[in-house]
From TrEMBL:
GO terms for molecular function: NADP binding; phosphogluconate dehydrogenase (decarboxylating) activity. Residues 182-472 form the 6-phosphogluconate dehydrogenase C-terminal domain. It is an enzyme of class 1 (oxidoreductase). InterPro entries: 6-PGluconate_DH-like_C_sf, 6PGD_dom2, 6PGDH_C, 6PGDH_Gnd/GntZ, 6PGDH_NADP-bd, 6PGdom_BS, NAD(P)-bd_dom_sf, Pgluconate_DH. This is 6-phosphogluconate dehydrogenase, decarboxylating. Coiled coil: none annotated. NADP(+) binds at G12, L13, G14, T15, M16, G17, N35, R36, T37, V78, P79, A80, N106. Homodimer. Pathway: Carbohydrate degradation; pentose phosphate pathway; D-ribulose 5-phosphate from D-glucose 6-phosphate (oxidative stage): step 3/3. Keywords: Gluconate utilization, NADP, Oxidoreductase, Pentose shunt. Its EC number is 1.1.1.44.
Length: 474
């Protein structure tokens, strides 16, 4: 077994790459590993007795590639952008026709499309593959969203189905479409992740600033919510986050963490693509923007001094069971709206790029392994299985739930606004819903303005054709 060539190579042994390599090795495959800091590959083998027998570290890239069986599978797990391009440029000359390069990191799908085109005619294959689940997911079972040429997928499938998370026994991995489809879907996954996290943070803000609740009490509520309709990984970890104490001070750790959110770009990519496609992904946009605002901490501190005297109403939230249930229902309703926006973005991209994305399958492979995994995704999968989904907000699976929950969302947004508690994502969800559900909007006036200042023309309700009006001179 010692000299048996490796089934796959992983280049990049950070949090994700190292854990994915161990996951692959544990499933009985031999995995060659290489890293900029070369020693990490050897440490991965030596520090993992048993599993390490299947880990084949290399000192040079040439040695790494030479240790792979043919056709070779080389998986990159490094930060997005130029690093991926640099690694492709290094590795591609060492490969042969039929070999496959896989970018398993997060990537701007436009880069993935470009890289797929770049290998055309070389005999090499390029796969853009989204992997979600963080460190533990990579180690024990992530959700995997595969793009690229369909005929390349069977080469990866035996390994991917073994290492992926399982939902009721079904592996959470699928080929979703050509070139950038896999990375696009991962990008929307992350956009939804941003929205989910922001909305949870807003509810936390209401509990903390509007209800005066302490972290322990909030942890208990999120723990309870995790047994109901909101049951999900993100709600589960929120309860853990809130319950955790700082070992040095004994205080809730969350109270000591600086309120500046980081971001690596995937949420922003989701919003940019939604905008390009003309889809209103407003809840995701609000979540991305909220991270941006959060990062301007000293500026916010200054602004808080200027507006310290502003008169807001006393928060009208109740910590009684009914008040907590109202928050829960508001969050559930806004969540449906946020997911509807994410799915609308994928549906639009599918049409625009001719991908034929299997939207139901996407919900299925998100049910386990990934950061947004939840019971709720099973309902989305069910809606697509029934068929005829134009938008999740028009699906019989959700109409009743949104109808029943919208009052709670409305009340929570209204009360938070009056109390001066920011709820940008929750209010964006509500505004989108109200805009989406009205047959007669207000952009007739926008069209009139555009026609007045720029002769942009408009359509009329009472007759066909394109019209320009000679508006009075202003
Ligand atoms: N962390 C997470 O939860 C998730 C991350 N991802 C994505 O996975 C990818 C990897 O992320 P993660 O493992 O967290 O990142 P880490 O920061 O933990 O690891 C980065 C890896 O990239 C290597 N690297 C960094 N810069 C260079 C460079 N200039 N040239 C060559 N190698 C370089 C590092 O090598 P060295 O050891 O020498 O520094 C290391 O192996 C990213 O695209 C990320 O967005 C996807 C899902 C979840
Ligand atoms: O892809 C992921 C999960 O699905 C990563 O955890 C990603 O890094 C999260 O994004 P950000 O760092 O921007 O919060």
């Amino acid at each position: 077994m010692g000299d048996r060539p490796a089934d796959i190579g992983v280049y990049g042994l950070g949090t994700m790459g190292a854990n994915l390599a161990l996951n692959i090795a544990e499933k009985g495959f031999r995995v060659a590993v290489f890293n900029r800091t070369v020693e990490k590959g050897f440490a991965l083998r030596d520090d993992n007795p048993g599993i390490g027998d299947n880990v084949v570290p290399a000192s040079t890239l040439k040695e790494f590639v030479a240790s792979l069986k043919s056709p070779r599978l080389v998986l990159f797990m490094v930060p997005a952008g130029k690093i991926v391009d640099a690694e492709i440029a290094e590795v591609a000359p060492l490969l042969s026709p039929g070999d496959v390069m896989i970018d398993a990191g997060n990537a701007d799908f436009n880069d993935t499309v470009r890289r797929s085109r770049d290998v055309e005619g070389t005999g090499l294959n390029f796969v853009g593959m989204g992997v979600s689940g963080g460190e533990l997911g990579a180690r024990h079972g992530p959700s995997i969203m595969v793009g690229g040429a369909k005929d390349t997928y069977p080469q990866l499938e035996p390994i991917l189905t073994k290492i992926a998370a399982k939902y009721e026994g079904a592996p959470c991995v699928a080929w979703l479409g050509p070139d950038g489809a896999g990375h696009f879907v991962k990008t929307i996954h992350n956009g939804i992740e941003y929205a989910d996290m922001q909305m949870i943070a807003e509810i936390y803000g209401i509990m903390r600033d509007g209800m005066g609740m302490q972290a322990d009490a909030m942890a208990a509520i999120f723990g309870e919510w995790n047994k109901g309709g909101l049951s999900s990984y993100l709600i589960e970890i929120t309860a853990v986050n809130l319950a955790e104490k700082d070992p040095e001070t004994g205080k809730p750790l969350v109270d000591l963490i600086v309120d500046e959110a980081g971001q690596k770009g995937t949420g922003r990519w989701a919003v940019i693509e939604a905008q390009k496609l003309g889809v209103g992904a407003t809840t995701i946009e609000a979540a991305v923007s909220a991270r941006g605002v959060s990062s301007r901490r000293s500026e916010r501190a200054e602004a808080s001094r200027f507006y310290a005297g502003i008169a807001t109403e006393a928060a009208d939230f109740s910590a009684e069971a009914a008040g907590i249930a109202e928050l829960e229902q508001a969050l559930e309703t806004a969540k449906i709206i946020a997911y509807a926006q994410g799915y609308a973005t994928m549906a639009s991209a599918s049409e625009e790029f001719g991908w034929n994305l299997p939207l139901g399958t996407i919900a299925e492979i998100w049910r386990a392994g990934c950061i947004i995994r939840s019971q709720f995704l099973d309902d989305i999968a069910g809606a697509y299985e029934t068929g005829g989904v134009v938008n999740l907000l028009q699906s019989p699976a959700f109409i009743g739930r949104v109808e029943a929950g919208q009052t709670a969302l409305r009340k929570v947004v209204a009360k938070a606004s009056m109390a001066g508690i920011p709820v940008p994502a929750l209010s964006a969800a509500l505004a989108y819903f109200d805009d989406y559900r009205r047959a007669r909007g207000t952009t007739n006036l926008t069209q009139a303005q555009r026609d007045l200042f720029g002769a942009h023309t408009f359509h009329r309700l009472d007759r066909d054709g394109v019209f320009h009006h000679r508006w009075p001179a202003v």
